[in-house]
Amino acid sequence: MSDHSSIEWTDATWNPVRGCTKISPGCARCYASTFAERFRGVKGHPYEQGFDLRLVPEKLADPFLWTARRRVFVNSMSDLFHADVPDEYIERVARVMAAADWHTYQVLTKRSERMADLLRTKLRFAADLPHVWWGVSVENRRHGLPRIDHLRAAPAAVRFLSVEPLLEDLGRVDLTGIHWVIVGGESGHGARPMAADWVRALRDRCEASGVSFFFKQWGGVRKSAAGRQLDARTHDDQPPVRDAHMPPRRVRLQMAEDCEAPAPAN
């Protein structure tokens, strides 16, 4: 993936891990899996192995090499906290984020218990960094609401929720300690429907709680036609991005070289 992205709430994607496995209803029509499996067996393609999980240590240095500051969605094509990703490798990814602090990183997971545990232990050095935002996916009450509790209990400067695909009314969600909520419907063939009142309830909850609200899309089979307006306006709020100095190219190249030590065996 690259230093440019069409995802509405970010600027770039960075995938030092590729592939994942499905663990909850929100994964049923995973866009990343669908994309990756199209290229299974294509020699030389980044997804020659389809959506099988694998580490990609040669991508670790990417944030040092980009020529402009970015909001970076970390592992848009995987889950950094997958059980088969070693703690040591997750720490290497976090140390890159800590060092390349002119970017803003958006880390999203469904493995919220593991993330919370590591933020209290091996990732404690990165938990409170204002340029690293830690988030969880929320699709329904049963699977999503416990993830919010795990996130809230973890140390973090910025916590966010990606409520996409929103599959049901979430009720009166506790947003204590949450700074940003992204909401979106499922898109593509067979997309499950999302009711407008479910979205409005989350928007109103965010407004009452002082939480930034971002409405990403209605989704559906014709995503572009459905658009992303809610009650005749777009909602693009998000936490402020920290203003940070970007070092000169020679310094960034040295930093990239320093981070490219051998990775754990895949």
TrEMBL record:
Biased amino acid composition, Basic and acidic residues:
230-246
Which branch of life, at top level?
Bacteria
Q: Where is this region: Disordered?
A: 226-248
This protein is called Bacteriophage protein gp37
